[in-house]
Amino acid sequence: MLYLRTAATLIVVAVALLAGASSSSIAQSDASRVASRLGNDVHSEAESARDSDIDWGNAVGVVHAPFERVVEAVSDYRNYRRFLPFFTQSRVVSERGSRALVYMEASVLHGSVTLWANMRMSSRPPQGDTRVVEGRMADGNMGDFRARWELTPLNDGQHTLVRLKVLIDPDLPLPDSICSSENVNTARRTIVSLRRFLGVSVPSS
Description:
The termini are far apart. The protein is α+β, with helices and mostly antiparallel strands and 205 residues long. Strands 1-2-8-7-6-5-4-3 form an eight-stranded antiparallel beta sheet, with helices on both faces. It is built from three helices and eight strands, in the order H-E-E-H-E-E-E-E-E-E-H. A hairpin with a 3-residue loop joins strand 6 (130-140) and strand 7 (144-154). It has a single domain, classed as START domain (Alpha-D-Glucose-1,6-Bisphosphate, Chain A, domain 4, 2-Layer Sandwich), CATH 3.30.530.
C-alpha cells in the first residue's frame, strides 16, 4: 500500500513538471506569434478595470534590444523620467531587494498641473520566460496610479516583446472616457519612447 501511494505521488509530481514545461513553451510560442503579427507596430487598446470607472491602457510591441537590457531598463526606476511620457522626476526613496519606493512627478495640461505619487515598485515571480514588474501608488495627489510590465524574450533573447498596462486616475475634473483614452495613449507612447531610450531603431519592412 505504501508503495502504491509513493508511486502515485511520483506520477503526480512528474505530470505537474511536464505541465509546467509545456505551459512555458506555449507562452514562448504565443509571444513569437504575437511578435510576428505586430511587426513594427505597437498595438494599444482599453481594458476594463474591475475596481475603477477608468480603463486600463494596454499596449504591446517588439523592442529590438536584448532581453536582459530591456529588463535592466524597466527595473531602473531612477531613469523612468527619461522615457515615461509627461514624467519629469523619478527618484528612488528607498530600496530593498526587488522592492522599491519611487517618487514620480508628471507635468500635464501644458505644464499647468503637477501630478505626483510615491510608487511601490516590485519585480514579481517570473511567469515562464516572462519577467513581470508592477507598481502601485502608495500616496500622492492622484486618485490612482498602477502599472504592470511584462517582458518576454524573443529569438533566444536577442529581442523583447514588451507589454505594458497603465491605469492613471489624475483626480481632475475630466470625463472618465478622456482619462481612459489617455491611459491607452500613455501605454503606447511609453513603448515607443522605450525604443528610443534604448537607442534601437525600428527595422524597415
